[in-house]
Amino acid sequence: MKYRNPVIPGFFPDPSICRAGDTYYLVCSSFQFFPGVPLFESRDLVNWTQIGHVLTRESQLPLQNANSVGGIYAPTIRYNEGRFYMVTTNVTNGGNFYVWTDDIHGEWSDPIYVEQGGIDPSLYFEDSKAYFMSNGTDEQGIARIYQCEIDIATGRKLTEAVPVWEGCGGRFLESPHLYKINGSYYLMASEGGTEYGHMVVYAKGDAVNGPFTSYAKNPVLTNRNLGGYQIQGCGHADLVQDPQGNWWMVHLGFRQIGNWVMHHITGREVYLVPVTFDADGWFTAGVNGTTRAEMETDRIPEDVVQHPVPDKYFTNTKIGVDWCFMGNPVQGDYAFENGKVLLRSNGTLLSDAGANPTFLGMRQQEMNLHISCTVRKSAQEAGITMYMTPEQHYEIAVRPTESGYEIIRRRQIGDLVVTDGNIPFPANCDAARLIVECSNYVYQFKAECGGKLYDLGSAQTKYLSTEVAGNFTGVMIGLYAQGEKCSEFAEFTNFICENLEK
After folding, report:
1. What is the distance, to the nearest Å, from the Cα of residue 286 to the centroid of all Cα atoms in its chain?
2. Is the pTM of this model over 0.90?
3. Is 420 considered catalytic here?
4. Fold of the domain built from segment(s) 312-499
5. Catalytic: which of 14, 191, 333, 366?
6. Candidates 120, 174, 269, 381; catalytic one
7. Reduced to 3 DSSP states, what percent helix, strand and coil does the chain have, rounded to the nearest 5?
8. Are 250 and 238 in contact (CB under 8 A)?
9. Across-strand partners of 361?
10. CATH dotted code for 2-296
11. What is the DSSP letter of 332?
């Protein structure tokens, strides 16, 4: 069958995968958003359903002062003796930790911390032993992968962390994962930075702690030399074996807004490629070591149909699954009832770094969308934001004025902030239909109010790209309320995010 990449579009970076029986489970980074660590399941590897998040309580996920490059970094999910483990790093509050559950659809434990530095931690289990790995540097500043044995019940280190591999010489050695396949140990990692030079590398050895011999043709996967190709930044990978014995690689990558336009707005996404072993035990991945938008394979039955991102409404989405908060939410400022969302300002702004404004967001998963929502006038500014960082975001909103209410558009790009539109509400109008039409290159802002359609102009998508913002996330479609702390709720109804690429 033929399938399309990415298999999970939108800001779902740093994928890690495991299999339990005939079902696959996958987790991703979440940075400053709450709940943390999106959790997906699949039966066929190309259709994924988000079943929730791993970190759903503030005791698991303190996000105080986490900005757009803080919070939760790359997780790893593993399944061992009937129990699931997820290990990750809260780079803002706490460092490396893991949680566990015996019910993948239920709650996870409180964090168990490991006193080991580095990021991108991973777990490997063998013979009732648990090994912890992360990246780091030695006293000479050389990047290495470090490994130690831990007590999985307490997180206590049973051995000192020792370097087991230096990688292949690329910058930013990260995302280590260890596997035992056909009697050999494989240590896979990424280098080059999670940018246009990203690449997957690996080494093979005869013992759990090496020594490891690098694959002679590393990198085993990269799109760094595919100029003029939309998919770039391929790296940070994990392996999984299907029930038929085939091996697969999931990895992150991103889609430029155009083949020759080096900006991406939907974040780092989840891609899938087949892995093939040769007679000497070395493996290759993808199409001649690259990832393509369309992949053809005989490993997935022909009757499997890959489904596009569905249209989204309040009625078919859930808070804490599709919708998330920025930072730890002030729960009393949110209410959800009868197909409506009610939000009220807590006194912080979208432009306040490290804050938790009243914000309810979902990932922008495709570039061509129609987004609209009806917003009733209230004592605060309330509307739709296309949000990347506190310094990069666009809004269309309803806000009070001295003489009544108006609809505005705001564009913030760094320290340049422009607010315009300023369309006054008719006296007999209580709500406005706010509209954002998304394409690869522009967001178009419109509003319906009092029986009239207003065009508030466009804003270029590239100024919300990672290349401009300098962060690691993707654009979030947000509903928000901001201004002075408010006792009144703003009402949002009839939300739709229509996928125009179906």
Report:
1. 22
2. yes
3. no
4. Jelly Rolls (2.60.120)
5. 14
6. 174
7. 0, 50, 45
8. yes
9. 324, 478
10. 2.115.10.20
11. G
